[in-house]
Write a structure and sequence with these properties.
single chain, Rossmann fold, 16% strand, four-stranded parallel beta sheet, two-stranded parallel ribbon, NAD(P)-bd_dom_sf, 12 strands, signal, Epimerase_deHydtase, alpha/beta, globular, 270 residues, DUF1731
Length: 270
């Protein structure tokens, strides 16, 4: 039986059985925990003003830095044994041809820079604490995320790929990312960088075709690059460019994906 304490919530939701700790109580919460999971960060699928770009980075690094600092300052007998900290596949930059695994170098764009600093902050945790850094792809689930923006358009017969549709879409079903994080908490073999993506990434056009099939709607109305750039500005790079990321470490560790193929994942969600 485990007790969960939530340190950070952007939304005022009800979490049955979960204690939500205000920031002033993080120290006590961390020191009474066996493990810490850090998933904090402002969503990136928005128009990037200079202020938003600063907040995208600061929201990740500030929280991670505070969590790590509180862990490091904990008395040894009260120090959590494990820190599972989120990062993202944006670490790798973008490419239509390369395949990225955990050994691949970082990219040179803004999101890659954010991820490098985010990870570097987590790596300052005390060496006695097992650290697992999960580079998470696009999470597919029933509530929120990418599908929440795409489904209404498809239901109105106005769905289609964004931009060329040839950009890679490295996704993972919500159940699988939750299970992967759980394994990282309880399995001492899970340490260092682990890609949190399904083993079969797809190009966005295929993702949209599969989504249309499941919904019984066509994927026929692409959104041109210029329209997305007009709405999202620099933030359009999140959807117009992608990366083909594979979970080499998770497979090596024997992690079993419930949903390795996007069509099966979509069927369970929709």
């Amino acid at each position: 039986m485990h007790e969960f304490c939530l340190l950070f919530a952007l939304l005022a939701r009800e979490f049955p059985g979960i204690v939500i700790a205000e920031e002033v109580k993080w120290k006590d919460s961390i020191q009474s925990s066996n493990a810490v999971v850090n998933l904090a960060g402002l969503p990136i699928s928005t128009r990037w003003s200079p202020e938003i770009k600063k907040e995208i980075k600061d929201s990740r690094i500030r929280v991670t830095s505070k969590v790590v600092d509180l862990i490091n300052k904990s008395p040894q007998e009260a120090q959590p044994a494990v820190l599972v900290s989120a990062t993202a596949v944006g670490y790798y930059g973008t490419s239509e041809t390369q395949i990225f695994d955990e050994s691949s170098p970082s990219g040179s764009d803004y999101l890659a820079e954010v991820c490098r600093e985010w990870e570097a902050t987590a790596f300052t945790v005390n060496k006695d604490v097992r650290l697992a850094l999960v580079r998470i792809g696009v999470v597919l689930g029933k509530d929120g995320g990418a599908l929440a923006k795409m489904i209404p358009m498809f239901k109105m017969f106005a769905g289609g790929p964004l931009g060329s549709g040839q950009q890679w879409f490295s996704w993972i079903h919500l159940d699988d990312i939750v299970n992967l994080i759980y394994e990282a908490l309880v399995n001492s073999s899970y340490k260092g960088v682990i890609n949190g993506t399904a083993p079969n990434p797809v190009r966005l056009a295929e993702m949209c075709n599969q989504l249309g099939d499941v919904l019984g709607r066509p994927s026929w109305l692409p959104v041109p690059d210029f329209a997305l750039k007009a709405v999202l500005g620099e933030g359009a790079t999140v959807v117009l460019e992608g990366q083909r990321v594979v979970p080499a470490k998770a497979k090596e560790l024997g992690f079993r994906f419930k949903y390795p193929y996007v069509k099966d994942a979509l069927k369970t969600i929709l």
